[in-house]
Protein backbone atom coordinates (compact mmCIF):
# COMPACT_ATOMS: atom_id res chain seq x y z
CA UNK A 1 0.00 0.00 0.00
CA UNK A 2 1.23 3.48 -0.87
CA UNK A 3 2.03 5.21 2.43
CA UNK A 4 2.76 8.75 1.27
CA UNK A 5 -0.57 10.04 2.57
CA UNK A 6 -0.29 8.05 5.80
CA UNK A 7 0.59 11.20 7.68
CA UNK A 8 -0.97 13.91 9.82
CA UNK A 9 -2.44 16.79 7.87
CA UNK A 10 -0.25 19.30 9.68
CA UNK A 11 2.86 17.86 8.10
CA UNK A 12 1.50 18.96 4.72
CA UNK A 13 0.14 22.32 5.86
CA UNK A 14 3.50 23.16 7.46
CA UNK A 15 5.30 22.25 4.24
CA UNK A 16 2.94 24.48 2.27
CA UNK A 17 3.59 27.27 4.74
CA UNK A 18 7.35 26.76 4.56
CA UNK A 19 7.13 26.96 0.78
CA UNK A 20 5.34 30.30 1.05
CA UNK A 21 8.12 31.53 3.37
CA UNK A 22 10.88 30.16 1.09
CA UNK A 23 12.12 27.88 3.89
CA UNK A 24 11.73 24.42 2.35
CA UNK A 25 15.40 24.03 1.39
CA UNK A 26 16.88 25.23 4.70
CA UNK A 27 18.96 22.58 6.46
CA UNK A 28 17.34 21.03 9.53
CA UNK A 29 17.88 18.18 11.96
CA UNK A 30 15.31 16.38 14.10
CA UNK A 31 15.83 13.82 16.85
CA UNK A 32 13.43 11.11 17.97
CA UNK A 33 13.45 10.07 21.63
CA UNK A 34 11.12 9.02 24.45
CA UNK A 35 10.80 10.57 27.90
CA UNK A 36 9.70 7.64 30.09
CA UNK A 37 10.73 3.99 30.05
CA UNK A 38 7.77 1.79 29.06
CA UNK A 39 6.14 -0.69 31.46
CA UNK A 40 7.73 1.10 34.44
CA UNK A 41 10.78 -0.96 33.51
CA UNK A 42 14.50 -0.34 33.45
CA UNK A 43 15.14 -0.13 29.69
CA UNK A 44 13.64 -0.28 26.20
CA UNK A 45 14.67 -2.14 23.02
CA UNK A 46 15.03 -0.18 19.78
CA UNK A 47 13.13 -1.71 16.87
CA UNK A 48 11.58 -0.68 13.57
CA UNK A 49 14.63 0.82 11.86
CA UNK A 50 14.51 -1.34 8.73
CA UNK A 51 10.83 -0.63 7.99
CA UNK A 52 11.49 3.05 8.67
CA UNK A 53 14.33 3.14 6.15
CA UNK A 54 12.19 1.31 3.60
CA UNK A 55 9.53 3.97 4.05
CA UNK A 56 12.04 6.79 3.57
CA UNK A 57 13.67 5.27 0.50
CA UNK A 58 10.29 4.65 -1.18
CA UNK A 59 8.61 7.96 -0.32
CA UNK A 60 6.87 9.46 -3.37
CA UNK A 61 3.45 10.93 -4.15
CA UNK A 62 1.39 9.23 -6.85
CA UNK A 63 -0.98 10.94 -9.21
CA UNK A 64 -3.89 9.64 -7.14
CA UNK A 65 -2.30 11.11 -4.00
CA UNK A 66 -1.96 14.52 -5.62
CA UNK A 67 -5.49 14.40 -6.98
CA UNK A 68 -6.85 13.74 -3.50
CA UNK A 69 -4.80 16.56 -1.98
CA UNK A 70 -6.07 18.94 -4.66
CA UNK A 71 -9.64 17.98 -3.76
CA UNK A 72 -9.12 19.21 -0.18
CA UNK A 73 -8.98 22.80 -1.38
CA UNK A 74 -6.03 23.58 0.91
CA UNK A 75 -3.06 23.55 -1.43
CA UNK A 76 -2.19 25.60 -4.50
CA UNK A 77 -0.79 24.23 -7.75
CA UNK A 78 2.80 25.24 -6.98
CA UNK A 79 2.80 23.17 -3.80
CA UNK A 80 1.30 20.15 -5.58
CA UNK A 81 4.02 20.49 -8.24
CA UNK A 82 6.61 20.48 -5.47
CA UNK A 83 5.14 17.27 -4.03
CA UNK A 84 5.17 15.62 -7.45
CA UNK A 85 8.98 15.50 -7.39
CA UNK A 86 9.42 15.32 -3.62
CA UNK A 87 11.72 12.54 -2.37
CA UNK A 88 13.68 11.92 0.82
CA UNK A 89 17.36 12.58 0.13
CA UNK A 90 18.47 13.13 3.70
CA UNK A 91 20.74 11.48 6.25
CA UNK A 92 19.72 9.21 9.12
CA UNK A 93 21.81 8.24 12.13
CA UNK A 94 20.54 5.49 14.41
CA UNK A 95 21.54 2.56 16.65
CA UNK A 96 21.22 -1.07 15.60
CA UNK A 97 17.85 -2.72 15.93
CA UNK A 98 17.92 -4.66 19.19
CA UNK A 99 20.00 -2.00 20.95
CA UNK A 100 19.13 -1.22 24.57
CA UNK A 101 17.91 2.37 24.85
CA UNK A 102 16.93 4.78 27.61
CA UNK A 103 14.92 8.01 27.99
CA UNK A 104 16.31 11.07 26.23
CA UNK A 105 18.60 9.18 23.86
CA UNK A 106 18.32 9.87 20.12
CA UNK A 107 16.72 6.80 18.54
CA UNK A 108 17.01 8.49 15.17
CA UNK A 109 18.62 11.72 14.01
CA UNK A 110 17.20 12.85 10.67
CA UNK A 111 19.06 15.55 8.71
CA UNK A 112 18.26 17.16 5.40
CA UNK A 113 16.11 19.95 4.05
CA UNK A 114 13.36 21.25 6.30
CA UNK A 115 10.82 19.73 3.91
CA UNK A 116 12.40 16.26 4.08
CA UNK A 117 12.96 16.16 7.79
CA UNK A 118 9.59 17.64 8.80
CA UNK A 119 7.31 15.61 6.55
CA UNK A 120 8.53 12.18 7.70
CA UNK A 121 7.82 12.85 11.40
CA UNK A 122 4.46 11.08 11.65
CA UNK A 123 5.41 7.85 9.92
CA UNK A 124 8.75 7.49 11.67
CA UNK A 125 7.04 7.87 15.04
CA UNK A 126 4.32 5.43 13.98
CA UNK A 127 6.86 2.76 13.04
CA UNK A 128 9.49 3.21 15.75
CA UNK A 129 7.16 3.86 18.70
CA UNK A 130 5.13 0.70 18.22
CA UNK A 131 7.89 -1.70 17.27
CA UNK A 132 10.12 -0.48 20.09
CA UNK A 133 7.26 -0.98 22.54
CA UNK A 134 6.57 -4.51 21.28
CA UNK A 135 10.25 -5.52 21.30
CA UNK A 136 10.57 -4.26 24.86
CA UNK A 137 7.48 -6.22 25.94
CA UNK A 138 8.88 -9.33 24.28
CA UNK A 139 12.14 -9.14 26.24
CA UNK A 140 10.19 -8.86 29.47
CA UNK A 141 8.22 -11.97 28.55
CA UNK A 142 11.26 -14.01 27.60
CA UNK A 143 13.09 -12.93 30.75
CA UNK A 144 10.10 -13.93 32.90
CA UNK A 145 9.93 -17.28 31.11
CA UNK A 146 13.51 -18.18 32.03
CA UNK A 147 14.67 -20.97 29.73
CA UNK A 148 11.18 -21.71 28.39
CA UNK A 149 10.19 -20.65 24.90
CA UNK A 150 7.65 -17.90 24.20
CA UNK A 151 5.52 -17.92 21.03
CA UNK A 152 3.58 -14.93 19.68
CA UNK A 153 -0.16 -15.76 19.44
CA UNK A 154 -1.51 -12.22 19.01
CA UNK A 155 -2.82 -12.04 15.44
CA UNK A 156 -6.53 -12.07 16.30
CA UNK A 157 -6.18 -9.39 18.99
CA UNK A 158 -3.71 -7.08 17.20
CA UNK A 159 -4.64 -3.59 15.99
CA UNK A 160 -5.43 -4.60 12.44
CA UNK A 161 -3.38 -6.47 9.82
CA UNK A 162 -0.48 -3.98 9.80
CA UNK A 163 -0.32 -4.12 13.59
CA UNK A 164 -0.27 -7.89 13.55
CA UNK A 165 2.68 -7.99 11.17
CA UNK A 166 4.58 -5.37 13.14
CA UNK A 167 3.99 -7.32 16.35
CA UNK A 168 5.41 -10.53 14.91
CA UNK A 169 8.48 -8.72 13.58
CA UNK A 170 9.29 -6.67 16.67
CA UNK A 171 8.53 -9.52 19.07
CA UNK A 172 11.13 -11.64 17.29
CA UNK A 173 13.77 -8.95 17.90
CA UNK A 174 12.86 -9.09 21.60
CA UNK A 175 13.32 -12.86 21.74
CA UNK A 176 9.84 -14.20 20.91
CA UNK A 177 11.19 -16.05 17.91
CA UNK A 178 8.12 -17.96 16.68
CA UNK A 179 4.59 -16.93 15.73
CA UNK A 180 1.17 -18.32 14.92
CA UNK A 181 0.89 -15.73 12.10
CA UNK A 182 1.45 -17.63 8.86
CA UNK A 183 2.01 -14.54 6.71
CA UNK A 184 4.56 -13.22 9.20
CA UNK A 185 6.30 -16.58 9.01
CA UNK A 186 6.63 -16.21 5.26
CA UNK A 187 7.56 -12.52 5.16
CA UNK A 188 9.99 -12.54 8.09
CA UNK A 189 11.26 -16.11 7.83
CA UNK A 190 9.98 -17.02 11.30
CA UNK A 191 9.03 -20.47 12.61
CA UNK A 192 5.24 -20.89 12.55
CA UNK A 193 3.61 -22.73 15.45
CA UNK A 194 0.09 -23.66 16.51
CA UNK A 195 -2.28 -26.34 17.79
CA UNK A 196 -6.02 -26.55 17.15
CA UNK A 197 -9.06 -24.74 18.55
CA UNK A 198 -11.65 -25.96 21.04
CA UNK A 199 -14.06 -26.06 18.09
CA UNK A 200 -12.06 -28.97 16.64
CA UNK A 201 -12.78 -31.05 19.73
CA UNK A 202 -16.41 -29.93 19.91
CA UNK A 203 -17.00 -30.85 16.25
CA UNK A 204 -16.45 -34.56 17.02
CA UNK A 205 -18.64 -36.98 18.93
CA UNK A 206 -16.15 -37.11 21.79
CA UNK A 207 -12.75 -35.76 22.80
CA UNK A 208 -10.79 -38.94 22.16
CA UNK A 209 -12.14 -39.16 18.59
CA UNK A 210 -11.10 -35.55 18.01
CA UNK A 211 -7.59 -36.19 19.33
CA UNK A 212 -7.20 -39.33 17.23
CA UNK A 213 -8.35 -37.55 14.08
CA UNK A 214 -5.89 -34.70 14.63
CA UNK A 215 -3.05 -37.12 15.31
CA UNK A 216 -3.84 -39.02 12.13
CA UNK A 217 -3.77 -35.78 10.15
CA UNK A 218 -0.49 -34.52 11.69
CA UNK A 219 1.31 -37.51 13.22
CA UNK A 220 4.67 -35.74 13.45
CA UNK A 221 3.36 -32.31 14.47
CA UNK A 222 0.64 -33.13 16.96
CA UNK A 223 -0.04 -30.76 19.88
CA UNK A 224 -3.38 -31.37 21.60
CA UNK A 225 -5.55 -28.78 23.36
CA UNK A 226 -6.65 -30.58 26.52
CA UNK A 227 -9.04 -28.26 28.39
CA UNK A 228 -12.24 -28.35 26.29
CA UNK A 229 -14.10 -30.44 28.87
CA UNK A 230 -11.93 -31.26 31.87
CA UNK A 231 -8.15 -31.11 31.80
CA UNK A 232 -7.32 -33.65 34.51
CA UNK A 233 -10.11 -36.21 34.13
CA UNK A 234 -10.54 -36.06 30.35
CA UNK A 235 -8.06 -34.03 28.32
CA UNK A 236 -4.78 -35.32 29.73
CA UNK A 237 -5.88 -39.01 29.96
CA UNK A 238 -7.15 -38.91 26.37
CA UNK A 239 -3.96 -37.27 25.16
CA UNK A 240 -1.99 -40.08 26.82
CA UNK A 241 -4.03 -42.63 24.89
CA UNK A 242 -3.15 -40.85 21.66
CA UNK A 243 0.51 -40.54 22.69
CA UNK A 244 0.72 -44.33 23.09
CA UNK A 245 -1.03 -44.92 19.76
CA UNK A 246 1.29 -42.50 17.97
CA UNK A 247 4.35 -44.21 19.44
CA UNK A 248 3.05 -47.61 18.40
CA UNK A 249 2.77 -46.27 14.84
CA UNK A 250 6.33 -44.88 14.91
CA UNK A 251 5.53 -41.26 15.82
CA UNK A 252 5.65 -39.15 18.98
CA UNK A 253 3.20 -36.69 20.50
CA UNK A 254 4.84 -33.27 20.43
CA UNK A 255 2.91 -31.62 23.25
CA UNK A 256 -0.30 -30.64 25.00
CA UNK A 257 -1.69 -27.13 25.51
CA UNK A 258 -3.28 -25.85 28.70
CA UNK A 259 -5.57 -22.88 28.05
CA UNK A 260 -7.48 -22.38 31.30
CA UNK A 261 -7.39 -23.04 35.02
CA UNK A 262 -4.47 -22.99 37.43
CA UNK A 263 -1.66 -23.25 34.93
CA UNK A 264 1.07 -23.79 37.53
CA UNK A 265 -0.78 -26.70 39.15
CA UNK A 266 -2.03 -28.21 35.89
CA UNK A 267 1.43 -28.06 34.31
CA UNK A 268 2.89 -29.95 37.27
CA UNK A 269 0.18 -32.58 37.00
CA UNK A 270 0.61 -32.90 33.26
CA UNK A 271 4.38 -33.26 33.61
CA UNK A 272 3.97 -35.96 36.25
CA UNK A 273 1.43 -37.91 34.17
CA UNK A 274 3.52 -37.89 31.02
CA UNK A 275 6.78 -38.64 32.83
CA UNK A 276 5.21 -41.56 34.72
CA UNK A 277 3.84 -42.91 31.45
CA UNK A 278 7.24 -42.77 29.76
CA UNK A 279 6.80 -39.58 27.73
CA UNK A 280 9.30 -37.12 29.22
CA UNK A 281 9.76 -35.29 25.91
CA UNK A 282 6.13 -34.22 25.52
CA UNK A 283 6.07 -30.43 25.82
CA UNK A 284 3.71 -28.59 28.14
CA UNK A 285 2.34 -25.49 26.40
CA UNK A 286 0.43 -22.82 28.34
CA UNK A 287 -1.73 -19.97 27.04
CA UNK A 288 -4.67 -17.81 28.27
CA UNK A 289 -4.13 -14.07 28.79
CA UNK A 290 -0.47 -14.46 29.74
CA UNK A 291 1.92 -11.62 30.41
CA UNK A 292 5.29 -11.32 32.16
CA UNK A 293 3.67 -11.10 35.59
CA UNK A 294 1.52 -14.21 35.10
CA UNK A 295 4.48 -16.13 33.69
CA UNK A 296 6.62 -15.05 36.62
CA UNK A 297 3.88 -16.24 38.99
CA UNK A 298 3.62 -19.62 37.26
CA UNK A 299 7.35 -20.14 37.64
CA UNK A 300 7.39 -18.96 41.26
CA UNK A 301 4.68 -21.53 42.01
CA UNK A 302 6.83 -24.31 40.53
CA UNK A 303 4.96 -24.54 37.26
CA UNK A 304 6.55 -26.81 34.65
CA UNK A 305 5.70 -25.07 31.40
CA UNK A 306 7.99 -25.60 28.40
CA UNK A 307 6.36 -23.12 26.01
CA UNK A 308 4.25 -20.03 26.68
CA UNK A 309 1.86 -18.79 24.00
CA UNK A 310 1.31 -15.06 24.53
CA UNK A 311 -1.34 -13.26 22.52
CA UNK A 312 -3.43 -10.30 23.64
CA UNK A 313 -1.05 -8.74 26.14
CA UNK A 314 1.86 -8.85 23.71
CA UNK A 315 -0.05 -7.71 20.62
CA UNK A 316 -1.70 -4.82 22.47
CA UNK A 317 1.36 -4.03 24.63
CA UNK A 318 -0.85 -4.17 27.72
CA UNK A 319 0.40 -3.62 31.24
CA UNK A 320 1.37 -0.83 33.64
CA UNK A 321 3.19 1.86 31.68
CA UNK A 322 2.36 0.14 28.39
CA UNK A 323 -0.10 0.92 25.63
CA UNK A 324 2.12 3.46 23.86
CA UNK A 325 5.78 4.42 23.97
CA UNK A 326 5.22 8.16 23.74
CA UNK A 327 8.24 8.83 21.57
CA UNK A 328 8.56 12.35 20.16
CA UNK A 329 10.33 13.98 17.22
CA UNK A 330 11.84 17.40 17.88
CA UNK A 331 13.79 20.00 15.93
CA UNK A 332 17.35 20.27 17.33
CA UNK A 333 19.08 22.27 14.59
CA UNK A 334 17.92 24.71 11.93
CA UNK A 335 19.91 26.74 9.42
CA UNK A 336 23.15 25.80 11.14
CA UNK A 337 22.03 26.85 14.63
CA UNK A 338 20.99 24.65 17.57
CA UNK A 339 17.34 24.73 18.57
CA UNK A 340 15.58 23.66 21.75
CA UNK A 341 12.04 23.62 23.07
CA UNK A 342 11.69 25.80 26.16
CA UNK A 343 8.37 25.33 27.90
CA UNK A 344 6.61 26.02 31.19
CA UNK A 345 6.61 22.25 31.70
CA UNK A 346 10.28 21.33 32.29
CA UNK A 347 9.56 17.67 31.46
CA UNK A 348 8.81 18.69 27.88
CA UNK A 349 11.89 20.82 27.30
CA UNK A 350 14.47 19.39 24.90
CA UNK A 351 18.24 19.21 24.56
CA UNK A 352 19.62 21.36 21.71
CA UNK A 353 21.88 20.37 18.86
CA UNK A 354 22.75 17.12 17.12
CA UNK A 355 24.30 14.71 19.59
CA UNK A 356 26.60 11.77 19.96
CA UNK A 357 25.27 9.00 22.19
CA UNK A 358 28.12 7.30 24.00
CA UNK A 359 28.02 4.19 26.17
CA UNK A 360 30.61 3.66 28.90
CA UNK A 361 31.56 0.00 29.38
CA UNK A 362 33.87 -1.70 31.82
CA UNK A 363 36.64 -4.15 30.92
CA UNK A 364 34.11 -6.99 30.58
CA UNK A 365 31.81 -5.04 28.31
CA UNK A 366 29.18 -4.37 30.97
CA UNK A 367 27.24 -1.11 30.73
CA UNK A 368 28.20 1.55 33.27
CA UNK A 369 26.28 4.61 32.04
CA UNK A 370 25.43 6.55 28.88
CA UNK A 371 26.46 10.09 27.97
CA UNK A 372 25.01 12.53 25.44
CA UNK A 373 27.51 14.95 23.93
CA UNK A 374 27.28 17.55 21.18
CA UNK A 375 28.26 16.20 17.77
CA UNK A 376 30.66 19.04 17.08
CA UNK A 377 33.98 18.25 15.39
CA UNK A 378 35.30 21.74 16.23
CA UNK A 379 35.59 20.84 19.93
CA UNK A 380 37.13 17.98 21.89
CA UNK A 381 34.56 15.18 22.27
CA UNK A 382 33.58 13.72 25.62
CA UNK A 383 36.07 11.17 26.93
CA UNK A 384 36.71 8.84 29.85
CA UNK A 385 37.68 10.70 33.00
CA UNK A 386 35.28 13.57 32.29
CA UNK A 387 32.16 14.51 34.25
CA UNK A 388 28.62 13.78 33.06
CA UNK A 389 25.65 15.70 34.48
CA UNK A 390 22.12 14.56 35.26
CA UNK A 391 20.01 16.44 32.65
CA UNK A 392 17.11 16.90 35.10
CA UNK A 393 19.21 17.77 38.14
CA UNK A 394 22.57 19.14 36.93
CA UNK A 395 23.87 19.41 40.49
CA UNK A 396 24.11 15.64 40.37
CA UNK A 397 27.08 14.49 38.37
CA UNK A 398 29.32 11.48 37.89
CA UNK A 399 32.84 11.08 36.57
CA UNK A 400 33.21 8.38 33.93
CA UNK A 401 36.07 6.23 35.16
CA UNK A 402 39.28 6.59 33.18
CA UNK A 403 39.45 2.83 32.55
CA UNK A 404 36.01 2.77 30.90
CA UNK A 405 35.66 2.26 27.16
CA UNK A 406 33.36 4.75 25.45
CA UNK A 407 31.60 3.48 22.33
CA UNK A 408 29.33 5.35 19.95
CA UNK A 409 25.90 3.69 19.96
CA UNK A 410 24.83 5.18 16.61
CA UNK A 411 26.07 5.17 13.05
CA UNK A 412 24.94 6.69 9.74
CA UNK A 413 22.47 4.21 8.24
CA UNK A 414 21.18 6.33 5.35
CA UNK A 415 22.77 9.17 3.39
CA UNK A 416 21.54 10.93 0.30
CA UNK A 417 18.35 8.91 0.69
CA UNK A 418 20.28 5.66 0.18
CA UNK A 419 20.43 2.87 2.74
CA UNK A 420 24.08 2.26 3.61
CA UNK A 421 23.94 -1.07 5.44
CA UNK A 422 22.61 -4.47 4.34
CA UNK A 423 19.53 -5.63 6.20
CA UNK A 424 20.17 -8.02 9.09
CA UNK A 425 17.93 -11.00 9.73
CA UNK A 426 15.53 -10.90 12.66
CA UNK A 427 17.45 -13.73 14.31
CA UNK A 428 20.66 -11.67 14.13
CA UNK A 429 18.82 -8.75 15.73
CA UNK A 430 17.40 -11.06 18.41
CA UNK A 431 20.85 -12.49 19.16
CA UNK A 432 22.27 -8.98 19.45
CA UNK A 433 19.46 -7.87 21.77
CA UNK A 434 19.90 -10.93 23.98
CA UNK A 435 23.64 -10.28 24.27
CA UNK A 436 23.10 -6.61 25.13
CA UNK A 437 20.56 -7.40 27.85
CA UNK A 438 23.19 -9.51 29.60
CA UNK A 439 25.46 -6.46 29.80
CA UNK A 440 23.01 -4.34 31.79
CA UNK A 441 23.71 -3.59 35.44
CA UNK A 442 22.28 -5.98 38.00
CA UNK A 443 18.61 -5.34 38.69
CA UNK A 444 17.85 -3.71 35.34
CA UNK A 445 15.61 -6.60 34.26
CA UNK A 446 13.49 -6.68 37.42
CA UNK A 447 9.78 -6.39 36.66
CA UNK A 448 9.16 -4.25 39.76
CA UNK A 449 11.38 -1.36 40.92
CA UNK A 450 14.20 -2.03 38.45
CA UNK A 451 17.64 -0.45 38.62
CA UNK A 452 17.60 3.09 37.18
CA UNK A 453 20.30 3.34 34.53
CA UNK A 454 22.16 6.64 34.40
CA UNK A 455 22.15 8.80 31.28
CA UNK A 456 24.19 11.99 31.64
CA UNK A 457 25.04 14.96 29.44
CA UNK A 458 28.43 16.52 28.79
CA UNK A 459 29.46 19.91 30.18
CA UNK A 460 29.37 21.56 26.78
CA UNK A 461 25.84 20.27 26.14
CA UNK A 462 24.78 21.48 29.57
CA UNK A 463 26.34 24.89 28.88
CA UNK A 464 24.60 25.18 25.51
CA UNK A 465 21.24 24.34 27.04
CA UNK A 466 21.67 26.94 29.78
CA UNK A 467 22.80 29.56 27.24
CA UNK A 468 19.70 29.02 25.06
CA UNK A 469 17.44 28.99 28.12
CA UNK A 470 18.80 32.39 29.14
CA UNK A 471 18.28 33.77 25.64
CA UNK A 472 14.68 32.55 25.49
CA UNK A 473 13.89 33.92 28.96
CA UNK A 474 14.96 37.48 28.11
**What is the strand arrangement across the widest sheet?**
12-11-1-5-3-18-19
Q: Output the structural class.
A: alpha/beta
Helical fraction: 25-40%
Biggest sheet statistics: 7 strands, antiparallel
Give the C-level CATH assignment of the largest domain.
Alpha Beta
Runs in which pLDDT lies below 50 for 5 or more consecutive residues are none
Choose one word for the global shape: globular
CATH level-two architecture of the largest domain: Alpha-Beta Barrel
Please count the helical segments.
Answer: 16
Count of discrete structural domains: 2
**Radius of gyration, whole Å:** 26 Å
How far the N terminus sits from the C terminus, by CA atoms, comes to 49 Å
Strand tally is 20
CATH topology of the largest domain: nicotinate phosphoribosyltransferase
Residue fraction in strands: 15-25%
- Mean pLDDT across every amino acid position: 96
The CATH homologous superfamily of the largest domain corresponds to nicotinate phosphoribosyltransferase
Characterization of the model:
This protein has 474 residues and is of the alpha/beta class. It has 2 domains: 270 residues, nicotinate phosphoribosyltransferase (Alpha-Beta Barrel); 180 residues, TIM Barrel. Helix content is 37%, strand content 18%. The strands form 5 sheets. It has a 7-stranded antiparallel beta sheet. A hairpin with a 5-residue loop joins strand 13 and strand 14. It starts with 8 loop residues before the first helix and ends with a helix. The mean pLDDT is 96.
